[in-house]
Amino acid sequence: MRKLMTLMLAGALAMPVATVAADEVVVYSARKEHLIKPLFDKYTEQTGVNIRYITDKAGPLLQRLKAEGKRTPADMLITVDAGNLWTAANAGVLANIDSKVLAANIPANLRDPEGRWYGLSVRARTIAYNTDRVKPSELTTYEDLADPKWEGRVCLRTSKKVYNQSLVATLIARHGEDKAEQIVKGWVANLAAPPFSNDTKALQAVAAGKCDVTIVNTYYYGRLAKKQPDLNVKLFWPNQKTSGVHVNVSGAGVTAHAKHPAAAQRLLEWLSSPQAQQMFGALNMEYPANPAVAPDAAVQAWGAFKADDLNVSEAGRLQATAIKLMDRAGYR
Ligand code: FE
Predict the structure, then answer these.
(1) CA nearest 87: which of 60, 53, 121?
(2) Angle at which helices 162-175 and 82-90 pack, to 10 degrees?
(3) DSSP assignment string, 260-293
(4) What is the Cβ-side half-sphere exposure of residue 306, based on CA atoms within 13 angstroms?
(5) Cα-Cα end-to-end distance for the chain
(6) How far is the CA of 32 from the centre of ligand 1 (A)?
(7) Are 322 and 246 spatial neighbours (Cβ–Cβ below 8 Å)?
(8) Distance between Cα 4 and ligand 1 center (Å)
(9) Predicted local distance difference test score (pLDDT) of residue 43
């Protein structure tokens, strides 16, 4: 059995056969390698704890954790979007972690009420507009993008992406299903083009004047603006007099069948610490989840905003309802 597990571990991670050492943590990450490796390297440098990891999309990683069950080599799951974290917790693959450090570092609305996952970075999903065609004074709320005055002017990413499912889930939490459906129908009626496969394409369509506004995660804007300093697109912070900007998280949890649960918890706690949080946010132009840590200068330059303080786990709880609603509203 031990030999089998070692072989599986080696095969799974495509690494040399090694015995399971005490000072190591095995991570499954839906966050891309270039966004996590610098953190892991820093942790290893400071603690001597070895971190082995694989990266894949959120769905396949969860399937793998479920299929492996008790035999999983994974101690920690890192994934993006509260919807995915909620789904993983709901599938029973994450352990409840009761940690004073995590409770102090991560605000309550950015973590699972049952302690199965903790947000480690905050991503703001906000409105982006074409500066040649829209005055910021014309913009107010996500809800207002359903108004007929935006007819033929809106671009959106596909409803298949969990980011939009989470955004619609918060509309449901805030307004109830009927009103949320009217809002989404309004967005669809105002579309200038069929939904795009990713946020960057939606931003490029806005830049090209194909549409005037879209809704994106700010780090995609940050990447594009870095490449095109003269980009004719800006960010707008909606709902400042109401619910605040929709925020979501990337986050992590210790697996239910971790072989190194204590070491994994220590790594998770370290990831919530100021030093790690600064890196975690800056690597992808996101906002640190730990409120004691300021965002990177480039991110700060976009300005301060009021964020929605709804617990992000609501996005998970209402995800299935949101998917059905978007389908009824004709949002593809
Ligand atoms: Fe993303």
Answers:
(1) 60
(2) 90
(3) SHHHHHHHHHHHTSHHHHHHHHHHTT-EESSTTS
(4) 11
(5) 47
(6) 10
(7) no
(8) 36
(9) 98
CB 310 within 8 A of CB 170: yes
* 61 and 225 Cβ atoms separated by less than 8 Å: no
Q: What is the 54 CA–ligand 1 centroid distance (Å)? A: 18
Beta bridge partners of 288: 121
Helices (H), 158-260: 162-175, 177-189, 199-207, 218-227
For residue 309, the number of C-alpha atoms closer than 13 Å in the C-beta half-sphere is: 6
Residue 115 Cα to ligand 1 midpoint, Å, equals: 24
How remote is the CA of residue 14 from the centroid of ligand 1, in Å? 26
Tell me the pTM.
0.90
Which residue carries 């100021």 as its tokens? 274
The predicted-structure confidence for 145-203, as pLDDT tens digits, reads as follows 999 999 999 999 999 999 999 999 999 999 999 999 999 999 999 999 999 999 999 99
Distances (CA, A) of 160 to 52, 100, 142: 31, 37, 19
C-alpha of residue 70 to centroid of ligand 1, in Å:
30
C-alpha of residue 250 to centroid of ligand 1, in Å = 9
Do residues 217 and 123 lie in contact, with contact meaning Cβ atoms separated by under 8 Å? yes
Q: 200 CA to middle of ligand 1, Å? A: 10
Ligand 1 center from residue 161 Cα (angstroms): 10
Q: Which residues contact residue 160 at a Cβ distance below 8 angstroms, ignoring those fewer than 6 apart? A: none
β pairing state of 233-236 and 24-29? unpaired
Retrieve residue 289's tokens: 């989840």
Residue 142 Cα, ligand 1 centroid: separation in angstroms? 19
CA 40–ligand 1 middle distance (angstroms)? 20
Cα dihedral sign for 205, 208, 210, 213?
Answer: positive
CA 276 to chain centre: 17
